[in-house]
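Q: Hi! Curious about what tRNA(Ile)-lysidine synthase looks like structurally. Here's the sequence.
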Amino acid sequence: MKILDLKRRVLSSLKKVIQTDKTMILGISGGPDSMLLLELLKDQKIVVCHVNYNKRTNSMDDELIVKKYCEINQIPFFVKSIKKHHNKGNFQTIARNQRYDFFNKIANKFHTDILVLAHHKDDFLETAIMLEQTKRKTNFYGIKKNNTVFNLFVFRPFINLVWKKQILNINQLNKIPYGLDYTNYENIYTRNIIRNALLKESLYDKGLLLKRYLKMNKKLILEQQKINETLLLWKSQNYAQEFLLDQKDIATSLIFELINQNFDHVNLTSGKLENIYKFIISNNRTSVYKLDNNYCLIKKRGCLIL
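A: Let's find out. The predicted structure is below.
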């Protein structure tokens, strides 16, 4: 794929969902994916945000690559540097929260709610495979092209357009600067293990795998329409436990959607959903079910209180 063709397709997809006169926040790590995104959108109304987690010996190199590029092209550039001792605990979750908090602050500064990220087809596959392996209930495998995260409209133009290998080729041909995160290929996270396994697959085989997940998602979308309609009916009946008894075939799906719509980041396994179902339909018509350390489901006189 040639860079001009990719640019045309990216700009076309942007115009379909985003007002062209609105400022876009770009999350740029300095890696090959995000630097290509920056190259394609450098003439648009953009602001660049870079997060330096200081986890690698060459983390500053990435920051300087992005900073220099923005200086040359006169693009507003903001960086958030996170101290090493903040990297303890669940790093992936902590990093995500800090990253989006930073994006939100800069977005508010420029009166926008648009965030553009450089996730690509390989990222989609990694996420889909990881989710399938966990056996958790989901309404989508992979990464959505656009969605709302922490009050930001997030758009990912590469997600259905380009593979990592193609990105590297385009960058090399067009001399686009970038840094490499060597920790991406260390088997320290589940995602890294999946990423390294996918490196051995051909684009053809990855394409077949991608088609499989897209087919699964189409089926999930149709099922989701039914779930949403039934959930509205359940809501109109004050989430009565009797209603759920009549929906045995989709009961856990209804519960999954109900919790996703009303509570943030509650981990839901198939076993947990089954336990919640038993709690709701139990003869004890007034009770409390602990979802996690932050949230509880309350049942009073046979109806859920939300």
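A: A fun detail: Residues 203-236 form the longest helix (34 residues).
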